[in-house]
Amino acid sequence: xxxxxxSITSPQDLKGxxxxxxxxxxxxxxxxxxDTVSRTGGHLSPNLGVVEMTLALHYVFDxxxxxxxxDVGHQCYAHKILTGRSREFSxxxxxxxxxxxxxxxxxxHDAYNTGHASTALSAALGLAAARxxxxxxxxxxxxVGDGGLTGGIAWEALNQSGxxxxxxxxxxxxNEMSISPNVGGLSRYLTYLVSGQYYLRMKxxxxxxxxxxxxxxxxxxxxxxxLEEAIKKTFFPGLLFEELGxxxxxxxxxxxLPSLIEVFEEAKGYxxxxxxxxVTKKGKGFGPAQDNPSKFHSASPFxxxxxxxxxxxxRPTYSSVFGETxxxxxxxxxxxxxxxxAMPDGTGLGPFGKKYPDRLFDVGIAEQHxxxxxxxxxxxxxxxxxxxxxxxxxxxxxxxxxxxxxxDVPILFALDRAGIVPDDGPTHQGINDIVxxxxxxxxxxxxxxxxxxLRHMLHSAFSYGHPVAVRFPKGKVPGVPMDEAxxxxxxxxxxxxxxxxxxxxxxxxMVRPALEAAEALEKKGIxxxxxxxxxxxxxxxxxxxxxxxxxxxxxxxxxxxxxGGFGSAVREYxxxxxxxxxxxxxxxxxxxxxPVGKVEQIKARYRLDVPGLIAQIEEFYRxxxxx
Length: 627
Ligand SMILES: Cc1ncc(C[n+]2csc(CCOP(=O)(O)OP(=O)(O)O)c2C)c(N)n1
Description:
By secondary structure, the protein is an alpha/beta fold. It folds into 3 domains: 3-195 and 238-291, Rossmann fold; 318-471, Thiamin diphosphate (ThDP)-binding fold, Pyr/PP domains (Rossmann fold, 3-Layer(aba) Sandwich); 495-622, Rossmann fold (3-Layer(aba) Sandwich). 41% of the residues lie in helices and 15% in strands. The strands form 3 sheets. A 7-stranded mixed β-sheet has the order 7-6-8-9-11-10-15, with helices on both faces. Helix 15 (318-332) runs parallel beside helix 21, helix 17 runs parallel beside helix 19 and helix 22 crosses helix 26. It is globular, with a radius of gyration of 27 Å. The two termini are 53 Å apart. Thiamine diphosphate binds next to helix 3. The site of thiamine diphosphate has 24 residues, from helix 3.
């Protein structure tokens, strides 16, 4: 570990450092982030952009007494390094290692767990209200990006903040980027605010100018804040944040430690909510990330010298198969439009946006809005495809129910990253969607066993005339042969893939491991038919009726939580049909907080990989097949 960084075991160690020392530390932290992320993968460009900001925050404020809340939390690496986790940082995003997001259980300096965007302001405001009610005097700082600020919840907090007028410091990190370039009217407004000179430079120039005026110069400088206010009001009438009731400071050069320190000190003394606009460069200090901040937003391991991503597996991802298929569908039907919540590339819609820029809507980090916006488009005669990761669609549960399902509006929801998600930890697991979708009226819930079936499912979705959710996992496809033409999948029909005495019915990407497990179990005297459920709703009643004979056995497998999931749907169906006299077992995930790790590691821990399935099924049969 570099010399200076070695001596920093807590933020207190920063307090005695000179500006030069702090500059040296910034270099060492950047290097540690680049070294580690090149090996482990991680959020490189967001973290390189906030090194000075993090140093200045920990220099001026007093964590853990003062609370720093990181919106999304993906930019917390320098914070972790400075708060006693420099040594452990090499285990970033590894199983049982340092999480890539703030986690209260990991350190007293992590004031609030984040992972989903736009929550920091609400959390900070709540903490500020609690502090003031208790008569305490510490500072609360929320750091939010210009992307995070596109989320509606952030504005709900700003609205209340201007009303409560509680002491709160909001650091707005403006880098013109969400994951992709930031979009929308707000983004334009922030660009307008930044387009002038930097705040401190402006202040210095004003001072120099005034000093030069004999007699009246110095007294005028003393008028200080009043003058500054007057200048701001003159040059920037109707500043949005000021109008909302927050004091606005900025723009500040976000890589200048002296500027940041001066501004944070100033904010410390303000008795009310204050918003500081800091301008930073995403990827700062690493050429490839600076040139392509989107690619390095969340990077796979890469070669440090060139930034070349180290990948040997040439198979496409599920996201890219989804993107290509939607593009093919759009070629054939001009009513098809696509919607993303700030993730055109992650969802695989990049090529769609290139070919049909006016048919791809990037709504910002606004999943709730995306769903209602799609409802409007569908009622207006279009066929919206809404691509949102499983974990982020959780946010729009009410919109799915109230807007989409009650009116039975045909919309295709593509839930990427469904199931176990690697590296990011508990906030990003896509394990709840079967549960939160399957009880919604009119909603159809599907999952393909491979990329070929994904194409058929997407192709079939609008023909059902109802809202449809297709869930598929993160990562590479199995690489099966692809059918030439896209086919219709009959609504609610499962597919029997293997004959056997008892039935193992699997959903989505559990089908292939279920088949493998059944082959191995055959040799051990357990004979299982394997079916690909295709649908969690509606279920294929004919299939279950056949195996639900008295004394029969049915097992279910899913990559989602068991409680209320696919297996529970099957059990409810059997109960509803009066099939009580059978042995039944659900294989899936327990309700708990998931560790950081690779998919294979997490699957192994929860016994959802092939050896785990075999072991669970054998135990079940040995135990007499009790549920
Ligand atoms: C609710 C939700 N939707 C989407 C995401 C995925 N996501 C992670 S970071 C990010 C962009 C954040 O941009 P910004 O706040 O400006 O931070 P920056 O990375 O530019 O520092 C997005 C869309 C998320 N974390 N949460």
